[in-house]
Every structure is written in C-alpha cells, then in structure tokens.
Design a protein that fits this description.
Layout: E1 50-55, E2 68-69, E3 74-76, E4 85-90, E5 95-98, E6 101-106, H1 108-115, H2 119-130, E7 139-144, H3 178-191, E8 199-204, H4 242-258, E9 265-266, H5 286-303, E10 307-314, H6 319-327, E11 334-338, H7 347-355, E12 361-365, E13 368-369, H8 379-389, E14 392-399, E15 401-403, E16 418-419, E17 422-426, E18 429-432, H9 434-443, E19 451-453, E20 455-457, E21 468-475, E22 481-488, E23 493-500, E24 504-510, E25 514-520
Parallel strand pairs: 4-23, 6-7, 6-14, 7-8, 8-9, 9-10, 10-11, 11-12, 12-14, 15-17
Antiparallel strand pairs: 1-2, 1-25, 3-24, 4-20, 5-19, 13-16, 17-18, 19-21, 21-22, 22-25, 23-24
Helix pairs in contact: 1-3, 4-5, 5-6, 8-9
The structure holds 2-acetamido-2-deoxy-beta-D-glucopyranose (7 copies).
C-alpha cells in the first residue's frame, strides 16, 4: 500500500473570475421517451410567486409540512424597513455556475424493494420520484456491481464461486453483469419513461477481487468477514490490470446500453481512499486513478461518450481530484465530493474551482440514517446548499430506498442504518420519508441549465452548524428565481429578498426549523416565445 495523498496545490494558478460560469453542456442525459424539464423552463414558466415549505422533522414517518404551500412572497417597490431579515442576491453581476440537478442513488437495496411492489404501486412511486408533479430528480448515481447496500457481494466478473473467490480472467471472457446487474439495468431503464433528462453516473465499490493485491487470498469460509477482499490488508488495485479494468468499464457501459440504459459518466472508484474491510471497498491512489485513465479508461469512455468524474470522496483530502487532473490532463469531466469528513468543508470546492474554472463539481454522496437524533434534521439542506454556494452543479443523496430494517445490505459492514427517501413494507405499502420532501425542495424547482447567483447578504453561519440561516439563489431557464432558504433556528423570520439589479424586493415569512423555496416570476421572461 502506498502512502496517502500528498498535498500538491498548484500555487500561482489561481484564476480570479467570480462570474466565469463552468458549463454542464458536455454532460449527457440517460434518455428514454419520458418528458423533459419542468417548473422554471420555457414550457413550464413560473407566472406567479409561490412558496413551499418542509419542516425539518427527524422522522422516517414524517409529519408536519411537506412541500406545503407557504405564505406567498409579496413584491414591493422598495425596501419596507423595520425589523426584517435581509437577503441580497447579486442579480446584476453575480452569475456563477450552471446547474444540472439533484437526486439520489440506485442501489441493489432500492431495486430489491422496488421489485416487491405491485406494478401500479411502482408506477405511482416512479411518478413521485421522477415525474413533473413529483420530485423530478435530474441527477442519479448507481452502483457498478455491489455496494454495502447490496444483500450479496459481487462484481461483473468474479470468475469464481463468489466475489472474493475468483481466479484471474485477464481477457474478461467471463464478464457478465449477472442476475443483480440485469435486475438493476431493467429497473433503471424504467426511469426514462418518467423523465428522459436525468444524468446517470455509475460508481464501483471495488474491482473484481482478482484485480486486487489481496484478491487471491481464499477465505476458509466466504461468509466470514476477514476473508479475501473483505480484508483491509492489501485491499488495493493491482496495477497489472489497468487496461483490463478499462475494458471492464467499457463492457459495463455496453451491457447497460443493451437494456436501454445510457450511462453518462462514471467515477473510477467510489471512495478511493477507503479500504476498510467488511464490504466491497478498494484503495486507489490518485496517481493510480490517473494511470487507469491514461491506460485505457479515458479512451474507452471517450469512445462511448461517457464522462469521467474524479475522486468521489470526502472534502478532507481535497488535493486528490487535482492530482488526477494533472496526471490525466483533458480527460476528467468533473470532480465529485462526499459529505463525510467531520465536518465536511465545502470551501475546498471553491478552491478547486479557482484552479479549474471549467470543470463542474458535484456532491455525489451523503447519507442520512437512523443515527440522526434530535427533533430537527437538516442533513439534505446542509449538504446540498453549501456545495451549490461553492460552485457545485448538483448533489445526490445516497441510498434511495430500503426495506424496514434498512436493507438489504452487506451483512459484514458498511451502512446498516442508512435511511433513503422510500421505505417499502409490502407490495402495496411504502412510505416517503422526510428526506424525500427535503430533496424535493431542490429537485422540483431548480432546472437543468439554471444559473446559481451570488448571495451577498443574508447568510448567517455555515450550513454545517446549528443556529443559522442559509440561502441559495438560482435563476431558472425561464428567467424566474428559485430562492431556497434554510432557517435552522427556533424563530420565524420576516424575510426580504432583494434582487439587486432587478430593483425588486420580495417579502414573506420563513418559519422556524424549515427549508423554504420561493419561486419568483421573471421580471422579463427569458423565453423567446413569451
Ligand atoms: C500483502 O502484500 C505483501 C507485500 O506484497 C505480501 O507480502 C503479503 O503476503 C500480502 N498479504 C496478503 C494477505 O495478500
Ligand atoms: C430498447 O428500446 C428499443 C427501442 O425503443 C426497443 O425496441 C427494445 O425492445 C428495448 N430493449 C430493451 C431490452 O428494453
Ligand atoms: C476549510 O477549508 C479552507 C480552505 O478552503 C480552510 O481555509 C479552512 O480553514 C477550512 N475550515 C475548517 C473548519 O477546517
Ligand atoms: C430486509 O432485507 C433483509 C435482507 O433481505 C432481510 O434479512 C430483512 O428481514 C428485511 N427486513 C424486512 C423488515 O423486511
Ligand atoms: C404498512 O406497513 C406498516 C409497517 O408494517 C404498518 O404499520 C402499516 O399499517 C401498513 N400500512 C398499510 C396501509 O398497510
Ligand atoms: C429559541 O432559542 C433561544 C436560544 O437558544 C432560546 O433562548 C429561546 O428560549 C428559544 N425560544 C423558543 C420559543 O424556543
Ligand atoms: C431569518 C432567520 O430566522 N434567521 C435566524 C436563523 O438563525 C440565526 C441563528 O440563530 C438567527 O441569528 C437568525 O435570526
């Protein structure tokens, strides 16, 4: 095992251009024949001011307001004065990054429980997740092979009785996405009938075990943690297999295409610095991620129109994606970040942007779980809003659905208590958790192609502390505004949002302990036919 990431910051390369807007235009969508877009685009323009509110309750059986209509913001000609909470949006020159979307991850647990639903119930749920009257999610991840949210562990070329008992298969003659891969592809393919402009990216938790340094160690009993690739020792990628692994990714993209699932991007490794045993993980040093790209992965993905998103791990080793870009220049489409450094420090995304103004960024994984305690839960809001402030073009929560005991999941380790947006109890019985409504406060109202704007006043504290007020201000393609506000305090506030540059002041109350989204119609429509 090599030593960890060395700090390598590119001093002197800082570009000071607060309005240079990175574009998401080169990132594809997974297709299908379903509708595109939604509220805030030119086919669905916002014509009257509206507000939606979700209480930050901490419960899977959430009660309280959930995407409920809230007090309508009133347009004023001038600032009303008095004791108000002022929010100022730099609408004149504060344009920042282009937005792509918000969403979740397809896991084996999700597919497993969705398969338990009767067809009409699944149809209703898919509309709630992807429909224009539902959450309309636009950014989805899926697991390439098994993750900790898989009841059984496998890769697409185990070449043996189990994930950790295979023999080398250098020509990938035994490549097969198998029962679980097919099941996942078939379920994900349904998504395109509900929404055809979702960006879908895949992430492997591990290469086939025979591509790892510890992979040929046979456990006395494959069900005992500590055997083979469940071991921490030498749980890293064997660099003899760079090109083989690149071909493996190519075959995976082709196999999913056969089920009409278009993969738009991959991360070469989920959490490349996490090599803990117990569930599929793999260590992949930044220089090796770059070498993997240079030794075939870049070419295989380019041929298929699939982007490569570097890193896919926590903000505390922020030099990693820069090292991949430096090592594989011109071949990285985006950088991906997770929320689990304690606490996450999303300002590293602004630093990354300064050095790479044309490379979009995403918050690609954050889990909420039964460990969250206390009366209030701002996990979604906290980990969606700060990445947006710091140049993120979208964000995705982790597992989308589980059964009532937060499974199926790996029995030996990993997350055994992650809560998604959906919990399935039986063929006709599921609940939407409060996480579903929290995600909806973003995914329903912020369109692909929207532009994030600088907020110059009204943010108090950081999104990761209690007792604060946080704002994102995003201009949708129709010229209307989505203003998302988190008030993590016990006080209802009388808020005035000033759109500086449009000479508009909007006023309404923002209740205590809520996430609130205001939709404000365009002063002048940005749509040519209106
Ligand atoms: C780990 O790697 C070292 C050095 O290559 C080797 O000596 C050792 O046998 C490996 N351990 C296992 C369990 O594969
Ligand atoms: C993929 O889509 C094509 C065209 O719509 C259709 O004919 C074919 O049956 C689909 N394949 C699968 C596996 O769903
Ligand atoms: C967060 O990262 C920035 C660099 O972007 C650093 O200056 C700051 O000290 C970090 N904050 C914390 C709390 O670690
Ligand atoms: C959840 O799935 C796991 C694995 O299939 C199973 O052992 C467990 O009993 C299930 N829990 C419920 C409540 O269905
Ligand atoms: C759904 O399942 C839960 C948990 O078993 C149960 O409490 C609830 O009554 C069920 N609801 C319906 C409508 O069957
Ligand atoms: C609100 O929080 C403040 C500071 O923690 C506390 O002093 C006050 O009593 C709280 N008010 C209510 C209504 O809970
Ligand atoms: C608008 C609003 O309610 N802001 C409050 C949110 O929380 C911070 C920290 O407690 C207060 O200072 C704000 O007044």
């Amino acid at each position: 095992m090599r030593t960890c990431v060395a700090a390598l910051l590119l001093a002197g390369l800082t570009v000071i251009s607060p309005t240079s807007a990175q574009s998401i235009q080169s990132i594809g969508t997974s297709g299908g024949n379903g509708p595109k877009g939604g509220i805030g685009d030119c086919n669905h323009p916002v014509t009257t001011a509206q507000a939606f509110v979700t209480d930050a309750v901490n419960s899977e059986f959430a009660k309280g307001r959930q995407l409920a209509k809230d007090a309508t913001p009133k347009l004023l000609q001038k600032h009303p004065g008095g004791n108000v909470w002022d929010v100022v949006v730099n609408a004149k020159s504060g344009a920042r990054q282009e937005m792509l979307g918000f969403g979740h991850a397809w896991t084996d647990s999700t597919v497993d429980v969705f398969n338990q639903l009767d067809a009409d119930v699944l149809d209703k749920l898919m509309k709630e997740l992807y429909g224009q009257d539902g959450n309309n999610m636009g950014l989805m991840r899926h697991t390439i092979g098994s993750s900790d949210l898989s009841g059984e562990q496998y890769s697409y070329d185990d070449n043996g009785p189990s994930f950790n008992e295979g023999s080398p298969d250098k020509d990938l003659a035994h490549f097969d996405i198998g029962y679980y891969g097919e099941r996942q592809a078939k379920m994900i393919a349904k998504m395109g009938s509900y929404k055809s402009d979702v960006t879908l990216f895949g992430s492997p938790w591990s290469a086939p075990s025979w591509m790892k340094y510890n992979g040929l160690f046979i456990a006395p009993n494959r069900n005992v943690p500590g055997g083979g690739s469940y071991m921490i020792a030498n749980n890293s990628f064997n660099i003899d297999y760079f090109n083989t692994y690149a071909q493996y990714f190519g075959k995976y993209v082709d196999a999913f295409a056969k089920y009409n699932v278009t993969i738009n991007a991959i991360t070469p490794q989920n959490e490349p610095l996490n090599y803990q045993g117990g569930y599929p993980c793999m260590y992949l040093e930044a220089a090796d991620e770059a070498s993997l790209i240079n030794n075939g992965l870049g070419e295989e993905m380019k041929k298929r129109g699939v982007g490569i998103w570097a890193y896919d791990h926590n903000t505390d080793q922020s030099a990693y994606p820069q090292r991949v870009i430096t090592g594989a220049p011109g071949q990285v489409q985006a950088a991906a970040w997770h929320c689990y450094a304690s606490p996450a420090n999303y300002t590293v995304m602004s630093d990354f942007h300064d050095n790479n103004p044309d490379i979009p960024q995403f918050m690609t994984e954050c889990a909420d779980g039964s460990w969250s305690s206390g009366p209030h839960n701002f996990v979604v809001a906290s980990n969606f809003m700060e990445p947006v402030t710091n140049w993120g073009s979208g964000a995705a929560m982790w597992v989308m659905a589980t059964n009532a005991s937060y499974g199926p999941h790996c029995p030996y380790g990993g997350c055994g208590s992650c809560i998604g947006s959906v919990i399935v109890y039986g063929p006709r019985n599921y609940t939407l958790t409060n996480q579903y409504y929290m995600i909806g406060q973003f995914s329903r109202y912020i369109r692909r192609g929207a532009i994030n704007y600088e907020v110059t006043k009204g943010i108090s504290g950081t999104a990761l502390t209690n007792e604060q007020f946080y704002v994102n201000a995003i201009k949708n393609p129709d010229g209307s505004w989505a203003i998302v506000m988190m008030n993590n305090s016990n006080k209802t506030q009388n808020v005035v949002v000033e759109l500086d540059g449009e000479q508009q002041y909007w006023q309404a109350t923002v209740p205590e302990f809520t996430l609130n989204t205001w939709l404000l119609p365009a002063k002048k429509s940005a749509c040519s036919n209106h």
